[in-house]
Amino acid sequence: MPATPRLHRKRFAPLAIAASLVASTTLGLSATGTLSAFTASITNSNNTAATGSLIMQETDSAGTTSCLSTSGTGNAYTSCSTINKYGGTTNQLTPGGAPNVTTVRLYNTGTTAVNGFTLAPGTCTKSGSGTGDLCGQLQLTLTCAPVTGGTAGTAVTLYNAVALNALGASKDIKAASATCVPPTSSTDYVRFTFSVQLSSSADNTVQAQSVSQPLVWTYTGA
């Protein structure tokens, strides 16, 4: 009976070899990528984004002297000393006399609309030999009016004969009048008129005094 095992091995050897060849061929096709399929794709090659800008510009009444927010660090210019809204020390005031009147223009030359607009008066400080407090005797009347196409709109009063030391921490100009918010424009603006007058009740204690008070305009973007 020794011949039987040899015949059995001979009968199945070709089948095993064939199966091995088929597996090798399939594996080879898979590895070399010769098997293919339909595909589809889209590449969006132009995906961009940008931010808008808020740029405040203040000029004198003639539009010849100008300060820009971009002149300072972080779009906040803190050294605009060329535009004096209280009239300066040359035009000296007397009790109940004529006021110092100054006008300025506020523009938004950026690309983003102004959503909030405030004016923050700083601390009024006096100097001079008098013993009285001139900050409490000088009164400010402030109005604003939009100017579109060279034509001024209706003026709105923001302060009406308020003492400089009582102006408060901040004035919400948009809340007072949305028409006084500068548009996004290089030509249209808001005109602010500052009128500073010495109270008729002022006495000799405020003679030979002067005052100084910083004013901070702030735009907030939409």
UniProtKB/TrEMBL annotation:
It comes from the Bacteria. Keywords: Signal. The keyword Signal applies. The keyword Signal applies. This is Tat pathway signal sequence domain protein. Residues 1-31 form the signal peptide.
